[in-house]
Amino acid sequence: MKKTRMLHAPVCARARDGGLSTLVMAVALALGAHQGQTQAQTPPAIQISAQPLASALLQLGEQADLQIFFSRADVDGRQAGPLSGQLSPDEALRRLLAGTGIEFRRAGRNVSLSRPSDATQLEAVTVHGRRDSLPQVYEGGQVAAGGRVGLLGDKDFMETPFSTISYTEKFIADRQARDITDVIAATDPAVFATGVTGIIAENYSIRGFSSSTNDVSFNGLYGVSPFYRASPEMFERIEVLKGPSALLNAMPPGGSVGGAVNLVPKRAGEEPLASVTASYMANSQFGGHVDLGSRFGEDKQFGIRFNGVYREGESAIKQQDKKTQLASLGLDWRGERTRVSADLYASEERVDGPTRGINLAPGVDIPKPPRPDTLLNPSWAFFDTRDQGAMVRGEFDVNESLTVYAAAGASKTQYKTTSVQTVQVFNAAGDYRTNASDLLFEVDKRSAEAGVRGRFQTGAIGHQWSLSATHYAHTDEQFGRRNVLGADWVTNIYDPAWGPAPSSFSAPAISKTKLRLNSVGLADTVSFAQDRVQLTLGLRHQTVVSDTFDVRTGDRTSRYDQSATTPAVALLVQATDRLSFYMNYIEGLSQGSTAPMTAANAGEVFAPFKTRQKEVGLKLDLGEFAHTLSLYEIKRPSSYTDPYSNVFSFGGEQRNRGVEWTFFGSLTPGLRLMGGVAYLDPKLTRSAGGLNQGNMAAGLPRLQAKLGLEWDVPGAQGLTLTANATSVSRQYINADNSQSVPGRTIYDLGARYATKVSGRPLTLRASVANVGNKAYWAMPQWTSLGLGAPRTVMLSATMDF
Fold first, then answer.
1. Cβ count within 10 A of residue 35
2. Is 602's pLDDT higher than 90?
3. pLDDT tens digits along 128-160
4. How far apart are CA 252 and CA 587, in angstroms?
5. CA dist 387 → 191, 231, 351, 383, 508 (Å)
6. In a domain? residue 59
7. How many domains does the chain have?
8. Is 110 part of any domain?
């Protein structure tokens, strides 16, 4: 019998959208049904032949979904007898280890093997069903039980003193996700997405701060992932760490501070894989995805994984055509002490008739939104993004307690567009004035990391330390021409009409910049009381060098050269095997500015500014279902020129305070839930002359609630029904809080069916997003208002060969 501690989220009775409070209560009631008892489940069928103990443990980890840690010295040369039948994990372990003198300790799916006389420090060998470096999948298959925590390496989520979540390949496929936002914003209330689709870049915020797509890392490295949008078929995990992370990940190129996203590329599994998916999305977009993987060599030390994607056709927005192409290759080699991997990809995304938001002229009220499938941009407008990237990573275990690693990568992006740039609604009838321009830019990025991780024991105190150095550099060249239409064009948001497409594309050079980021970070996790108390301390020193050049002469016109040191401290206390408490203080870094020529201190260069987070939280793991609860405060400086002294400074500040409750896993056998509730208070606490001071930051809801549900229908083997609900409160669209868009609740429904055809596994998926075809305004990047995505039907069929 398992005891359950009920966590009740506060219900905001003053929510503007009635659907929000309904969803919050539904979430609480659904979880209240879980009485703390895990229904008896049939033990897994174990089938292991007589073989060396090490490989038998590997098979047990695969078949029983366990993660097993042991010393090579304990198992080398030992044989295990055969196992067969429906055995509990404990019984299977007892039989395998019978007569060896080895004892085991199990906490959920984590198992540690040791001898009674062993020293406490052993070589950690992870056994699981896929590959040695990938944390195990949590109950339900939607998320992992751990993930990469930057400088600290891979950690179990119960031993991580930060708020993290890692989405699995299965969750990505079942969502029929088309980009990263589709994954991370689906059920996490800490992530806010506008719901606007077809725009040039992914657009989401984490803990109330916009997160730049430039700051997404690829297998731990900045500068390798696609620049504006990443099709997720080539990733095995998508990891999210909430809050600033300068110590853990170094300063991101775009200066994002609300959270960090890391994309983990796919690797070949132990068994060969050949999977083909055919897909359809309304109105007439068809596509396919091929996923191939295999391992070679006597010990399967070589692995290769290929993913190819092609989609093209009209989207759910009328006159908007999308095309996506992707080819990725993941290679790896693993030896006894050495692991090497390489990843290469090429992708292209083109949208004809991209989505564009609108702005309001002074004094104009927010208009009623048009039909959600309305295109507020000419159908001849377009954007085309082409990305290429490559990286290599290697690790070497010097001995049982010391590992060195290094990685290097590069990418190139070419972006080209002709699109409306300024859209202003100037009357209550919805008439708006606009123009269009050509834009082209090219970005070359390079990134590298090298480091060492080790551990040692001083009496009863353990140390896990890490030292890393990072390097990032990019060159950004921009070209453009304004006024494609020749004069301001006037049309209406309810019935847009456009002239002919421009006859040519012209984009003379505009600017050229070079950015270099270098850092050194050091952290030590000190553990006490049999590792139940862990204190992490760390520092990172960061330098930023940015040069701007005159595109006509090539001469450097300005230079930014500054540095900063950021500390972090985090404490984790494991009260029991199921309950952890944590707290942290950590900082984020963003590039400072140079005072403008009009300021009294013209030319003054400011050091990278620091965003500071304080957070406390708890994590409750019931074995098959987990909760997290966190309270945080983040203070982010902002720059302004004082209206009285005319001095430019970073005297402004936005302070975000929030509470987050999230949950995931199997509530009961056959019923999986994931979601939560988040309350956010994003306040402008300091501003120039006190203007708008005390107001809410624009574009953010105070309250979000999300619920994702999967139900395996009893009596209908292979059939699963799915549902998602996302509810948000109102959002102000201006700093003076005089205008706001109302809250909304969006429902998605779906189903999938797993069967076999001619002995081959086949999975059919169907989903409908925004079932009610609700029309709503949101506040996307660069504009005040954007039109949310319409009802969208998606179908797919996946067959494994």
1. 10
2. no
3. 333 346 888 999 999 999 999 999 999 999 999
4. 12
5. 26, 11, 15, 13, 22
6. yes
7. 1
8. yes
**Which has more pLDDT, 440 or 29?**
440
User: Within a domain: residue 111?
Assistant: yes
Helix (H, G, I), strand (E, B) or coil at 220: coil
pTM of the model: 0.85
Q: Which amino acid is at 461?
A: I
Helix then strand then coil, % of the chain, to nearest 5: 10, 55, 40
Domain containing 88: what range?
Answer: 42-129
Please, which contacts does 431-435 make with residues 24 or more away whose CB atoms are closer than 8 Å? 431/490, 431/491, 431/492, 431/493, 432/358, 432/490, 432/491, 432/492, 432/493, 433/488, 433/489, 433/490, 434/485, 434/488, 434/489, 434/490, 434/491, 435/482, 435/483, 435/484, 435/485, 435/487, 435/488, 435/489
How many CB atoms are located within 10 Å of the residue 552 CB? 8
Could you tell me the two tokens for 727? 């509810």
- Cα–Cα distance measured from residue 633 to residue 697, given in angstroms and rounded to the nearest whole number: 15
Nearest Cα neighbor of 331 from 519, 131, 507 is: 131
Q: What is the CATH number of the domain that holds 94?
A: 3.55.50.30
State residue 43's pLDDT score.
66
Could you tell me which residues are beta bridge partners of residue 217?
Answer: 262
Longest dimension (CA), the chain: 87
State both tokens at 655: 């302070």
Q: Is residue 433 part of a domain?
A: no
Does residue 452 have a pLDDT over 80? Answer: yes
Residue percentage of the chain with pLDDT more than 90? 69
pLDDT digits (tens, 9 = 90+) for 556-587: 998 999 999 999 999 999 999 899 999 999 99
Of 675, 670, 700, 695, give the one whose Cα is nearest residue 683: 695
